[in-house]
Specification:
358 residues; six-stranded parallel β-sheet; single chain; seven-stranded mixed β-sheet; 11 helices
C-alpha cells in the first residue's frame, strides 16, 4: 500500500510497497481520509528522531522508519472479531491515536494518557494516518455524526488536547471564568474555542503574529494583545476588572517569558494550566506562584472522554472549527506543500490537512 514514511531528520518518503497490517481481534481496519500535520511532526522532521523510536517501542515493537500521521479521520473498512456492535463498516470516524500498555502504574489509575510506555499511532509505530490502511483498536474509533464532515473530523484530535486542558482547569466551578491564553498557534486557538463552548465569560489571547491575531478574533477571543507592545500582566488585570488577574491562564506558548507571564498574571488563588510541551529546561521562580497562592496544573494529551466531548460540541454547533483548515494537499506533496509552509510560513496557517484520496 501507499504510505508516508519517516526515516529521520528531513527524510520523509512516499512509498508504494508498504505492507498492510493484519487485522486482529478487537481491532478495526480504517481507510484514512484527512490527516493533520502537527507541530510534533515538524519537530521530528527538523531535528528528530526525538519522539519516534530508534529502538523497538515497548508496545508497538516498531522503530523508524515508521508510517506517520496521528491527527486523522477515516472510514471503517473491516472489523475484527469481537469488535463492538456500535461500529459498522462504512462508518465515518475520528481516531484517538493513544498507545498505552495498560499495565503500568499510570494506566492502573486511569491515566493512560501519561502511560510510562505510551506513544501515538503515527509517531511510535502501529501504522499511521498517512497511509491507505491502518489497523487500530476498536476503542480508538469514535463515530462521527452525519453533520461532521471527514475533514472536520481530522480536527477532533487537536481540539481534544484543548478540551483535556480546559477540563483539568477549574472552569466548571468558576462562573463566567476570566481566562488568558498565551500563544495563538493551533492549540491556543483550539483552547479559545473550547473555553467559549464551556462558558468562559472573558477570553484574552496573547499572540505575536498578525495573522494568528486575526484567527484568534475570528474564533471569538474578546481581546487579542501583542506581548511585544503590551504589559500583559497589567492589561489583563485591567480587562478583568482591575482588582484581580485572570482566573485561569493557559500557557500554550512554552517559552520562558510565557511561563513568567502566566504565573505573574494569574489571579490570587487562580490556576495556571501548562498545555505546552517544552523543548528544554527554563528558569522558574516558585515565588511567582507562592505570593498569589496560585496553582500550577500540567496536562498531557487527552483521553477518550475528551474526544467524546469535542465531537458532541461540534455536532451541537458549540464549536465551529472549519476555519482552522487553511490548506489541503495530496500526500505526494507532503513536504513541499505541507511541512515547508508550516516551517517557513507558519504564521499564515493553522492546520494543513493531507487529503488521502486526492
Amino acid at each position: 500500500m501507499k504510505a508516508a514514511r519517516y526515516y529521520g531528520k528531513e527524510d520523509i518518503r512516499i512509498e508504494h510497497d508498504v505492507e498492510a497490517a493484519q487485522l486482529g481481534e478487537g481491532e478495526v481496519r480504517v481507510a484514512p481520509a484527512f490527516v493533520g500535520i502537527c507541530g510534533t511532526d515538524l519537530h521530528e522532521y527538523l531535528g528528530g528522531p526525538n519522539f519516534s523510536p530508534t529502538s523497538p517501542h515497548p508496545v508497538t515493537k516498531e522503530k523508524v522508519p515508521i508510517t506517520i500521521g496521528h491527527e486523522f479521520s477515516g472510514v471503517i473498512k473491516e472489523l475484527g472479531a469481537n469488535a463492538p456492535s456500535h461500529l459498522k463498516v462504512g462508518q465515518n470516524i475520528a481516531v484517538q491515536p493513544t498507545i498505552y500498555c495498560g499495565s503500568c502504574g499510570a494506566c492502573k489509575i486511569g491515566a493512560e494518557n501519561a502511560c510510562y510506555n505510551g506513544g501515538f499511532v503515527g509517531l511510535s509505530g502501529g501504522g499511521g494516518g498517512m497511509s491507505e490502511s491502518v489497523v487500530v483498536p476498536a476503542l480508538s474509533c469514535l463515530p462521527l455524526p452525519e453533520n461532521i464532515a471527514l475533514d472536520v473530523g481530522a480536527l477532533v484530535e487537536p481540539l481534544a488536547v484543548a478540551w483535556h486542558a480546559v477540563d483539568a482547569s477549574p472552569i466548571a466551578s468558576v462562573p463566567q471564568a476570566k481566562c488568558l491564553v498565551l500563544g495563538g498557534g493551533p492549540i491556543g486557538l483550539a483552547v479559545v474555542q473550547v473555553l467559549l463552548s464551556r462558558g468562559a465569560g472573558l477570553v484574552i489571547v496573547s499572540e505575536v503574529a498578525a495573522r494568528r491575531q486575526e484567527f484568534a478574533k475570528q474564533f471569538g477571543a474578546h481581546h487579542v494583545l501583542d506581548p511585544r507592545s503590551n504589559d500583559l500582566v497589567a492589561i489583563s488585570k485591567e480587562l478583568c476588572g482591575g482588582e484581580n488577574g485572570p482566573d485561569i491562564v493557559f500557557d500554550c506558548a512554552g517559552v520562558p517569558q510565557s511561563l513568567e507571564t502566566a504565573c505573574k498574571a494569574v489571579a490570587s488563588r487562580g490556576t495556571v494550566v501548562n498545555v505546552a510541551i517544552w523543548e528544554k529546561a527554563v528558569p522558574f521562580d516558585p515565588n511567582w506562584l507562592v505570593f498569589r497562592e496560585a496553582k500550577y496544573q500540567a496536562v498531557l494529551g487527552y483521553q477518550r472522554k475528551d474526544f467524546e466531548g469535542v465531537i458532541k460540541a461540534i455536532a451541537e454547533g458549540k464549536i465551529k472549527p472549519e476555519a482552522m483548515i487553511t490548506s489541503k494537499i495530496r500526500v505526494e506533496d507532503l513536504v513541499q506543500g505541507g511541512y515547508t509552509p508550516l516551517i517557513k510560513e507558519k504564521d499564515k496557517h493553522v492546520k494543513i490537512l493531507v487529503d488521502m484520496h486526492a
